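Researcher: Let's do a round of design. I'm pasting the structure tokens now; please hold your answer until I've finished.
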């Protein structure tokens, strides 16, 4: 294969940047590279490392993280994959940070369709132990995503799936907490033990509707 090990590390801005200082950002990014040594470092939403007017200049250390990533490219260890919008990637690759001529391959993928996003949601939820209940199908989720319009979906790209999974998990956590407020008391201990029932991992249509309405 392209790399000797099956090590795969996925990171975003929050995994690389420390708002407290540029030095801490450099160290944090180097640690991420070290964790991926021998495998692949996948940097998602790379555009968030570009300077932004929405952040204080004293805390915007994304460029420092980019420079550290650039210095690691010539070694090929780890294999670095950058993901983001085409125009932002072009800005980064053509900048003087150190990315020029360092990438072997560039791939431009089409934006995911509502149904593809729905399948992502179902897969991610399944990986976390959740089950879609009766009536909550990939088509149902896709229709909900499509109802928001193309502009809304394309602006968020693949983040729709992650945001929706996060919102559903928060909804299920809130539901479980509300149902277990009393808990059970151990005969020998005064510590409340949460009640866990199989229904708590089954996501109903109502759960999805609440999560979609309140969290998206």
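Researcher: That's everything. Go ahead.
Model: Designed sequence:
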């Amino acid at each position: 294969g392209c790399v000797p090990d099956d090590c795969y590390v996925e990171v975003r801005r929050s995994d690389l940047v420390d708002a407290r200082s540029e030095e801490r950002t450099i160290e944090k990014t180097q640690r991420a590279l070290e964790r991926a040594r021998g495998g692949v470092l996948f940097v998602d939403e790379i555009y968030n490392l570009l300077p932004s007017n929405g952040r204080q200049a004293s805390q915007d250390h994304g460029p420092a993280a980019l420079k550290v990533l650039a210095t690691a490219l010539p070694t090929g260890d780890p294999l670095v994959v950058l993901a983001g919008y085409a125009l932002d990637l072009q800005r980064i690759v053509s900048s003087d940070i150190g990315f020029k001529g360092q990438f072997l391959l560039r791939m431009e993928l089409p934006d995911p369709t509502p149904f593809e996003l729905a399948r992502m949601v179902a897969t991610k939820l399944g990986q976390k132990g959740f089950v879609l209940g009766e009536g909550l199908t990939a088509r149902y989720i896709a229709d909900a995503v499509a109802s928001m319009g193309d502009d809304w979906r394309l602006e968020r790209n693949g983040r729709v799936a992650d945001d929706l999974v996060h919102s559903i998990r928060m909804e299920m956590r809130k539901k479980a907490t509300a149902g277990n407020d009393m808990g059970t008391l151990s005969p020998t201990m005064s510590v409340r033990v949460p009640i866990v029932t199989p229904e708590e991992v089954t996501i109903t249509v109502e759960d999805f509707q609440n999560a979609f309405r309140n969290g998206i």
